[in-house]
Design the sequence.
């Protein structure tokens, strides 16, 4: 008998809201967080819309001694992890240190921090480089800092798989629990909104150059023209079901019931892409059938040929317009490692509240996508099972199935 | 029944020679491959020594397009992956691509390309608002380094689970440990697993200068890496990569593959203490060792060789000596321990995989590589560190460990598969 893994706490840091309820209210009301970049003078750059978090005062959330040694992405990750643990009513000091682990995903490391250090090195000299650079930059920084902050000494890791990595982290956290660690903090947070990070985003060729924040990121729309990068993400507390019960958990958001990841064939291959297979494997891993799935949270990258490929995969599994599909990420932009975990939060709240949030912005979905895309307003519907999809540039595909846990 | 995972192919690129054979020759001769940094003028830096690999991507078989596209760390990884597949004798083209996965470790990934791009975009640090006119189409690949495992997946046609494990300096152990878990649970039958880091670039040298973690034996670069020696004063930065073909044991046996070793145990723990500091008691590394031994169903007494982290910082050498005593008790005193970082330096996230390669080769050849440059041991490091000269000795079971920034402590047990001849 394989151990069930429950989600018992959520923490959200998004441009649409700091904290789970603010984020969820904004998501249901369709209030977006995409705006003109204000971190620096972006007038010389060909695209200027981003999902910036404008209301995060780090000193209100992070001990002051951590401020000089952390990038904005790590501050957001530390805050989101705190909120998730508080939400789960977990007191880490009351648990055995080796019984708690941290598994995060990361895509760009502490990029703004490291940009400043590159600048110091090249304009002033190596003696000006920060003593914190060696660990504020690397991709394991959020795992390490969360582990230290909460005294978590169990198996821990950091994974990178572009936008799919956040779901991989959750999948690996579940694996870690099944291998014997009762509690794992997991998720992903990214930010790279310094001038160099922004330019690096633009080099992907997939960033929307639209100027209207409401019309910039329109996945599955006939006018899709790329995505808007965002910052932030989500952290989740995952617990072994028995352990959660034993400590008297007050609320279970749901179960991480299935997970799978696949990789696309090499560029130019005639073999089919792997998203459909990842979704099918995750559904099978959950012991379910496609007809059991109540909603799909799509990857929704906003590039026409990739949107079509995803629509085809969904139609192939569920039939034409066979399942409600949504992509609330149009309100926050794509969050890289944070995208999958934030979609999981939305999926779990859909289960809780019986409502599917809409895909804001997208209006004109080509008929041959055969998608039942939730548009305009949220759709009230009982949701007990959701499939969350994520794709990462170069061919990563990940899928997670979450299910309701009868209270 | 638990699926067992074995190493059937190895590819290594490290300082001191191209390929696995030259790597093993260097290690067993006790020669060192550290030198004054030649990739750039190191004179402004506190530490000017590194383990540089003489790596010629064209001669290694990469196409000009691949060379233009890939960061140096990706090039190392792809070359090692191709070597490992050749070495394994596995016809990957005949396998179902869905059953092949990739798990690649790296700590600083595309640092070299990031720095090259930065210098161009910023006019050598003059401009904070970097100039879009000079933007490379590959810049995104350097921002988000999961292109590295993607490159490996493309080279072997893997369509199973593909990921990058980036846990700082334990990445090379953890990426292989991750791959073992995926095969055991049935997510893949074959994994290309390993790690690559090519961090010899000014920003990385400067960030270790800033915390005085690297050596200052700039006048004696060949003897700068001195793990466990009383005179050591920091690690020597290096670049390298190692990739493995990992297979489910029954598959490997059915095709009559040469099996280097079984990976019978792996575990990782965090110290939750400090992003760069270590407590002297070695508690969490000892816990990782004990957990890896438990998975290997061993009480520790079978361990015949410990491939140490042995970075050559005072803090590390004492920390891990304490961890060996704490986890193995009296047996720690009877067990040969060595650090190959004394010869090839410390390649951050890659070195864990390179050390797995050394451990597997020790089993294959019955030779324990020495700790070079160890003349006068630190009195607090009082175990058998195999100074200077390799030791011929049958080895069936090896423990290899790693320790890194972020507090990660990892341990892996490799053993000669049952029934395999010495």
Sequence:
């Amino acid at each position: 008998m394989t151990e069930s893994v429950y989600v018992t706490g959520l923490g959200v840091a998004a441009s649409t809201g700091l904290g789970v309820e603010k984020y969820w209210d904004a998501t249901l009301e369709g209030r977006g967080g995409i705006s003109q970049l204000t971190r620096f003078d972006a007038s010389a750059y060909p695209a200027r819309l981003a999902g910036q978090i404008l209301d995060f005062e780090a000193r209100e959330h992070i001990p002051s001694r951590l401020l000089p040694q952390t990038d904005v992405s790590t501050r957001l990750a530390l805050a989101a992890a705190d909120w998730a643990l508080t939400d789960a009513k977990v007191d880490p000091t009351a648990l055995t240190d080796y019984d708690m682990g941290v598994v995060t995903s990361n895509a760009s490391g502490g990029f703004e921090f490291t940009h400043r250090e590159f600048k110091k090195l090249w304009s002033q000299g190596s003696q000006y480089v920060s003593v914190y650079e060696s660990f504020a930059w690397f991709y394991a920084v959020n795992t390490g800092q969360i582990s230290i902050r909460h005294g978590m000494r169990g198996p821990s890791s950091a994974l990178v798989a572009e936008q799919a990595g956040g779901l991989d982290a959750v999948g690996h956290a579940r694996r870690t629990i099944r291998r014997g660690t009762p509690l794992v903090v997991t998720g992903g947070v990214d930010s790279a909104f310094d001038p160099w990070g922004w330019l690096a985003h633009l080099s992907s060729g997939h960033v929307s150059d639209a100027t209207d924040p409401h019309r910039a990121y329109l996945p599955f729309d006939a006018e899709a023209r790329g995505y808007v990068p965002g910052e932030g993400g989500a952290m989740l507390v995952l617990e072994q079901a028995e352990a959660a019960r034993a400590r008297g958990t007050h609320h279970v958001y749901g179960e991480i019931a299935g997970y799978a990841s696949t990789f696309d064939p090499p560029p130019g291959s005639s073999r089919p892409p792997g998203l459909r297979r990842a979704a099918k494997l995750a559904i099978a891993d959950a012991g379910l059938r496609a007809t059991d799935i109540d909603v799909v949270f799509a990857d929704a990258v906003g590039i026409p040929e990739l949107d079509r490929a995803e629509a085809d995969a969904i139609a192939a599994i569920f039939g034409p317009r066979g399942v409600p599909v949504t992509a609330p990420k149009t309100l926050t932009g794509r969050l890289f490692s944070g995208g999958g975990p934030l979609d999981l939060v939305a999926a779990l709240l859909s289960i809780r509240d019986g409502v599917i949030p809409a895909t804001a912005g997208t209006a004109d979905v080509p008929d041959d996508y055969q998608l039942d895309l939730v548009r305009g307003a949220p759709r009230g519907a009982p949701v007990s099972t959701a499939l969350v999809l994520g794709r990462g540039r170069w061919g990563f595909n990940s899928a997670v199935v979450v299910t309701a846990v009868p209270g | 029944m638990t699926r067992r995972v074995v190493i059937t192919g190895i590819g290594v690129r490290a300082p001191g020679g191209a390929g696995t054979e030259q790597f093993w020759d260097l290690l067993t001769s006790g020669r060192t491959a550290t030198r004054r940094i030649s990739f750039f003028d190191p004179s402004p830096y506190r530490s000017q020594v590194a383990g540089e690999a003489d790596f010629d991507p064209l001669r290694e078989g990469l196409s000009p397009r691949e060379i233009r596209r890939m960061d140096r760390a990706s090039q190392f990884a792809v070359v090692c992956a191709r070597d490992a597949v050749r070495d394994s004798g596995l016809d990957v083209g005949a396998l179902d691509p869905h059953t092949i996965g990739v798990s690649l470790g790296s700590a600083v990934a595309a640092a070299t390309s990031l720095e090259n791009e930065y210098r161009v975009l910023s006019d050598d640090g003059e401009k904070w608002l970097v100039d879009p006119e000079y933007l490379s189409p590959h810049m995104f690949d350097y921002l988000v380094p999961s292109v590295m495992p993607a490159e490996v997946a493309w080279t072997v046609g893997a369509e199973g689970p593909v990921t990058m494990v980036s846990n700082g300096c334990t990445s090379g152990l953890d990426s292989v440990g991750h791959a073992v878990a995926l095969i055991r649970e049935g997510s893949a039958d074959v994994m290309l697993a390993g790690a690559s880091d090519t961090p010899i670039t000014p920003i990385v040298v400067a960030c270790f200068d800033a915390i005085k973690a690297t050596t200052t034996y700039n006048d004696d670069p060949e003897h700068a890496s001195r793990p466990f020696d009383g005179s050591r004063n920091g690690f020597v930065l290096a670049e390298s990569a190692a990739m493995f073909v990992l297979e489910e044991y029954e598959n490997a046996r059915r095709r009559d593959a040469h099996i280097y070793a079984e990976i019978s145990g792996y575990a990782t723990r965090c110290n939750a203490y400090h992003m760069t500091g270590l407590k002297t008691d070695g508690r969490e590394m000892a816990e990782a060792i004990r957990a890896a031994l438990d998975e290997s169903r061993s009480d520790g007494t079978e361990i015949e060789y410990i491939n140490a982290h042995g970075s050559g910082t005072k803090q590390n050498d004492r920390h891990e000596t304490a961890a060996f005593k704490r986890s193995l008790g009296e047996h720690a005193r009877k067990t040969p321990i060595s650090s190959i970082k004394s010869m090839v330096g410390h390649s951050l996230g890659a070195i864990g995989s390179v050390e797995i390669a050394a451990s597997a080769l020790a089993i294959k050849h019955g030779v324990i590589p020495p700790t070079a440059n160890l003349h006068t041991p630190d009195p607090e490091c009082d175990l058998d560190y195999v100074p200077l000269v390799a030791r011929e000795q049958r080895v069936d079971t090896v423990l290899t460990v790693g320790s890194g920034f972020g507090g990660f402590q990892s341990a892996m047990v490799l053993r000669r598969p049952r029934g395999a001849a010495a």
Remarks:
- Chain B touches chain A through 82 residues (CB under 8 Å).
- The mean pLDDT of chain B is 97.
